[in-house]
Design a protein that fits this description.
The chain is mainly alpha-helical. The protein has 13 helices and 5 strands.
Length: 338
């Protein structure tokens, strides 16, 4: 089984990214051939600073290694190093409906938030994301809940390609998403009706993976809850439900177990204290591992280059098939089709 996921090198990665995605990347290494891509080309679809992009890319590489990605057990690479992603994006545009791209939630939200130029890249963003995965014929895509719509589009693009150009066979694999049951949508601690995010959420309500333990404790202790005392998940208690989920994942327990354990607690103060302690325990080693690795950019670069070479071998084979099927470029000499 092949697993693929992508992550943006923008801003600092937060607890939502860590729980919703990065923890799944780490466990994916045990379950199949795993590829993880730092998507710098997605990051340029909104206003950005080129020097900052480079530096964020190394930040994220060091963070992912510290979190447990092991270049001997997965392929970790930078998107722009594998040109097949951009070529496949263009080719897939021919089987992507424009209206669908215009209706995507992320496009609508980001294009209204963007004060200056709304780039064409922002519109085509989901096609690049489809190309990322489809270039590897990946079966499974670990992501958080917010990527569901992108995954659905990707599946439709793959199906449409196969119908139009497959000639009876599945040239592209229609991938499945893998969204965790608990922690798929970690909420802002200050406004638990909004998801924790790099751009939309509050600084005080966002725990960053690289926050110092003291900052983490402070943010969690100040989390907004409600006026009751019962420690149980419910739609009317989004703040408490969020803390229960965070604590469950951080401890490797189920939310039900956490609710049972916390039944005798004195109130939300105890829940917050337990959550803060568990999150510090979860993230402190990542922060330390990050600090050890971040300074050696040459070593990080070597890992990314090697990853890109391995990724490229797989993607190039898919592209050769796609080009052949679409009648693009010189005909293949062996003419063997999948
Ligand atoms: P990005 O970089 O915004 O987020 C990386 C991952 O973190 C998850 N996530 C969350 N999970 C739980 N709770 C939250 N509050 C939360 N916020 C973010 C996201 O679901 C994601 O899995 N478009 C993608 C990057 C991408 C990609 C791909 C993903 C590009 N190509 C191919 C999968 C496959 C993005 O911007 O992720």
């Amino acid at each position: 089984m092949r697993i693929f996921s992508g992550i943006q090198p923008t801003g600092s990665k937060h607890l939502g990214n860590y729980i919703g995605a990065i923890m799944q990347y780490v466990s994916g290494q045990e379950r199949g051939q795993a590829l993880y891509c730092i998507v710098d080309l997605h990051a340029i679809t909104v206003a950005y600073d080129p020097a900052q992009l480079r530096s964020s890319l190394y930040d994220l590489t060091a963070l992912l290694l510290a979190a447990g990605l092991d270049p001997r057990r997965c392929i970790l690479f930078r998107q722009s190093d594998v040109v097949e992603h951009t070529e496949l994006t263009w080719l897939l545009c021919s089987v992507t409906e424009l209206g669908r791209l215009q209706r995507m939630h992320q496009f609508r939200d980001k294009s209204t938030a963007q004060r200056e130029l709304v780039s064409a890249g922002l519109l085509v963003y989901p096609v690049l994301q489809a190309a990322d995965v489809l270039a590897y014929r990946a079966h499974e895509v670990p992501v958080g809940e917010d990527q569901r719509e992108h995954l659905e589009l990707m599946r439709d693009v793959a199906r449409r390609f196969n119908q139009r150009f497959g000639g009876g066979s599945d040239v592209l694999v229609v991938p499945e998403h893998r969204i965790p049951e608990v922690g798929a949508r970690i909420m802002d601690l200050q406004d638990p009706t909004r998801k924790m995010s790099t751009t939309g959420s509050s600084q005080e309500g966002t725990v960053y993976v690289l926050d110092e333990p003291k900052q983490i404790e402070k943010k969690i202790r100040r989390a907004v809850t409600d006026s009751g005392t019962e420690i149980a998940r419910s739609p009317e208690k989004p703040g408490v439900s969020n803390l229960i989920e965070i604590l469950a994942v951080a401890r490797g327990a189920s939310p039900e177990q956490v609710e049972r354990e916390m039944a005798g607690a004195r109130g939300y103060g105890d829940l917050k204290a337990a959550t803060a302690e568990a999150v510090v325990e979860l993230l402190a080693p990542v922060r330390e591992g990050y600090l050890e690795r971040r300074a050696d950019e040459a070593a990080l670069e070597a890992i990314l280059c090697e990853g890109a070479q391995r990724a490229r071998e797989i993607a190039a084979a898919t592209l050769a098939d796609v080009r052949e099927r679409m009648g693009v470029g010189a005909p293949r000499r062996d003419r063997s089709l999948p």
